[in-house]
Amino acid sequence: NAGVTQTPKFRVLKTGQSMTLLCAQDMNHEYMYWYRQDPGMGLRLIHYSVGEGTTAKGEVPDGYNVSRLKKQNFLLGLESAAPSQTSVYFCASSYHDSHSKAFFGQGTRLTVV
Amino acid sequence: EDQVTQSPEALRLQEGESSSLNCSYTVSGLRGLFWYRQDPGKGPEFLFTLYSAGEEKEKERLKATLTKKESFLHITAPKPEDSATYLCAVPSGYALNFGKGTSLLVTP
Predict the structure, then answer these.
(1) Taking CB atoms and an 8 Å limit, are A48 and B43 in contact across chains?
(2) Are B95 and A45 a contacting pair at CB < 8 A?
(3) What pLDDT sits at residue A67?
(4) What are the DSSP calls for A30-49, one per residue?
(5) What is the per-residue pLDDT across A46-65, written as a single tens digit (0 to 9) for each?
(6) Cβ–Cβ contact A39 with B under 8 A
(7) pLDDT at position B45 over 70
């Protein structure tokens, strides 16, 4: 039972490069989330999805795009990376809404130079 | 605006020295309060959910309690393996709003 799997685990990008972070869950959860975690800032919500084919903006969406083409996958894209996007990114999923516990992936440590 | 504040930011305990972590919140209509544990380099791991004032939940050396304004995570006779960052969170819209966490270090 894998739970929530994120790829890659580490990545270094040059300013202006693009990349996609992949999140996959095998628990048949409806809701999926992307958070970023920075020192002194805690976890902040970037985007979320309430079901296949849906996406919505969170607290800090600028510079990111997402897609949920399949229920089990939630992709986070950076079109033109900036040093301010250096962070640890976590994907999470929950059964149906924010009242139910969320399961987190192991994180992706992204450095933009 | 919903807010979650955790204190202290960091706590250092000797093995066996019991203490409590605090999570205060300001939300309109609490729909649950969540506690997570996060180890270095890993994602948060669910510990407890509390839904109403007076509710308590326990797991090994941890006990979480909830009042109308705050939650406490009591750690009884901690061991070095309890060292981690403890996060609390409340539902906000469709997602969880997290506090900044308490970093706990338990020394032998």
Answers:
(1) no
(2) yes
(3) 98
(4) SEEEEEEEETTTEEEEEEEE
(5) 999 999 999 999 999 999 99
(6) no
(7) yes
The answer for residues whose C-beta is within 8 angstroms of residue A76's C-beta and 6 or more apart is: A20, A21, A23, A34, A46, A47, A64, A65, A66, A89, A91
Asked if A107 is an interface residue toward chain B (Cβ–Cβ < 8 A), one would say yes
- A-contacting residues in B 43-62 (Cβ below 8 Å): 43-46, 49
Contacts of B34 in chain A (CB under 8 A): 101-102
Name the residue among A91, A68, A65 with its Cα closest to residue A8: A91
pLDDT above 90 (res B94): no
Up-side HSE of residue A44: CA atoms within 13 Å toward CB?
A: 16
The pLDDT score that the predictor gives to residue A98 is 73
